[in-house]
Design a protein that fits this description.
The protein is α+β, with helices and mostly antiparallel strands. It has a domain at 22-78. The chain has 2 helices and 2 strands, in the order αββα. It has a two-stranded antiparallel sheet.
């Protein structure tokens, strides 16, 4: 555990990442679970159409990310209180 407080530069860097991040909430949509056809995707920013949806893929023989991976990504942004 680090006992030293964060420096102003470190705090500024954290704030810049928060300000630059896509807004919450993120919602995972999985084919077969949430809709009947199409890709798995993450809706970014709720119903606000100003934010594009996020499509997640992998550069392997399985091109589409699993529902567990898309849900895990969504939770990282939605449930941290950001």
């Amino acid at each position: 555990m680090i006992d030293e407080p964060l420096t102003d530069a470190e705090l500024d860097a954290i704030e810049a990442r928060v300000v630059g991040a896509s807004k919450a909430p993120w919602q995972s949509f999985v084919e077969g679970r949430d809709h009947t056809s199409g890709d798995n995707f993450i809706r970014v920013g709720g119903l606000d159409d100003d934010e594009p949806d996020m499509y997640v893929s992998r550069a392997t023989r399985w091109p589409q990310a699993s529902s567990i991976r898309t849900s895990s990504l969504m939770h990282g942004r939605t449930y941290r209180g950001c």
